[in-house]
Amino acid sequence: MNRDELLAQCLAKPGAWEDQPWEGDVVAKVGPKIFAFVGTDTVGVKCAPTREAADEWLHRYPADAAAMAYIGRSGWNSLSIGGAIPDEEILEAIEESYRWVVSKLPKRDRPKPADQTS
After folding, report:
1. Is the whole-model pTM more than 0.85?
2. Hey, how many other C-beta atoms are within 10 angstroms of the C-beta on 94?
3. How far apart, in whole angstroms, are the C-alpha atoms of residue 51 and residue 75?
4. Which CA distances in Å does 50 have to 5, 84, 92?
5. What is the pLDDT of residues 64-93, one digit of tens each?
6. Structural domains in the chain?
């Protein structure tokens, strides 16, 4: 999987949109909140609700997972694309990050289920 494919997967989620809040940095948001930081060869996602739980990624993939600077204490990790972490696990991590972020949004900012209109 490459960066463009990964970004496309992020943007395919209900209510997801691309933003560049800092020059040269691409993020995927749902409502006003980021659920994925999309780099050239990494993706930053919320891997768990706590740092201790997110550390499982670091133990399983020590060369390809790292706690993110500044927000790592909140369970955010940077995962390498194209390394030891299988693409399926990266996609699952993105899905989980999306779900956690959506669950914390006020109801007015949550995307409507795909089968609802208006």
Report:
1. yes
2. 22
3. 4
4. 28, 23, 18
5. 999 999 898 999 999 999 999 999 999 999
6. 3-107 (3.90.1150.30)
